[in-house]
Please model this.
Amino acid sequence: MSIKSTMMDYQLTLPPLIDRLGKFFPEVEVVSRLPDKRLHRTNYLAIQQRSKKLASALTQCGVEKGDAVATLMWNHYAHLEAYLGIPAMGAVIHTLNLRLSAEDVAYIANHAGDKILIVDDILLPLYEQFKDKAPFKKVIVVPLTGQGVDDEFINYESFLDTGSSHFQYPTINENDAAGMCYTSGTTGRPKGVVYSHRSTVLHCMAEAMTDSLAISQHDVVTPVVPMFHANAWGLPYTCVLVGAKQVLPGPHLDAESLMDLYEKEQVTLSAGVPTIWMAIKEAREAEPLRWKTADNLRMVVGGAAVPESLFRAFDAFGMKIIQAWGMTETSPIATVGNLKPSLLDESLDTQYQYRIKQGVPLPFVDIRITDETGQEQPWDGHSQGGTEVRGPWVTGAYYNNEDADKFTEDGWLKTADVSHIDAQGYVKLTDRTKDLVKSGGEWISSIDLENAIMGHPDVLEAAVIAVYHPKWDERPLAAIVVKPGKVVTKADIHLWLDGKFSKIWLPDAVETIDEIPKTSTGKFMKIKLREMYSDWVWT
Ligand code: ADP
Model:
């Protein structure tokens, strides 16, 4: 007779986490920066009650299990209420990316079949641009500015008043849909990813682990990464899980506003893409004595590779960068770049060589690299290939089964990232498949080159792309943004890179531009750069 487990089949869903807020962390604060820069303060008890009122009001107005409720919002208390209240009544929170074009937002909202929109009052001008093409039956407006809400819309506060904080959760299965996000479309038409209650709960438990981002109730967390894309890297849910205070920056994402906020609220952990931290580094270096008490911050940096120079600069301020890698499809955190104990005795230089890697997979995230024929590559630190991933918070398909060829026959997600993995399990991304430079049969990593160039003291930003070359097929071109008043030539860059790379890797062209074009999530937009240099002629 085989023994059966005696454990309960307890479903991993969000409602128990919502209830913990009131029971265990009622006084923990949620601070939000409003459009006029004032700070809005509330606590988890109020967030719990208002989330339940939202769930109740949505139920009463006919929203059904599995319906999509869209948000078009910055990071603040009401978005957190939507993160909790919408899935709590069985619907699916669909975060719309407010940095996309009106046309793309309309496409995505229609594709997902969104029934209701919750929108910040300050984002109504964006809504106006696509409302004729939008599918919403109701539009609920959050009055962040304190001004009234037009009669054609529903006022969010009045809507909450129609609901009850004693809302009874419906029965939810852990595999039911909880949230939805579309990829930002840098590698094609946006595609929908649908998170389940289970994937969300497991992702935040893994994210909170000490050897991952080590988030606890002692932390004060500021996701700069937007709540409108990839769940703000899961941080709002993780803070709810552990009872950590949240400090949400609203629409104010410039370096000075963020540093002021970190200092005032004694933030201990923040997260964002490298371009945010580059701006903070500049501000910090320009005024070394300002913001002294924000110096213990841990910063989670991901979404794009992190240059070594950024690690070194922040270490000098006492602010620690932790790199993480992932994507919309992976909820998003898949690997985290902490140093293993065995590396702590290594020289600082060696440690930086590990810290610039994307890190080790979280528990339950399986990773492998394969060549063009699908052959798995060894973990030897140099054999590179396409990165494939699977796990409980990795999507197994796109919404409506689009792009089914992005999944292998044995059920792994084929990412658009090229990497190698070393014997210790550290993943190092060399490029996105589309960004690799193929020169005379040799692959050149645009990421490695641009990261090294960004270490040059007079360079603010650098992006490397492949441009057509009649002899070599492709050669690297570096577009750089230099610090005000400085001039940096190709010869300077070659001198700076000398000894770091073999000669054939050095960019044949170095072009100074005013700004590197950025995507809706603040990453370098290489598609745009490639367009800019599409008719490049070598002289
Ligand atoms: P999109 O794919 O549309 O840019 P995502 O936000 O899902 O939208 O981005 C995921 C991609 O971002 C990854 O596939 C990878 O190319 C890049 N990325 C994420 N984290 C890192 C990192 N730490 N280092 C380098 N690239 C990263």
Q: What stands out?
A: Residues 370 and 425 are 15 Å apart (CA to CA). The chain has a mean pLDDT of 95.
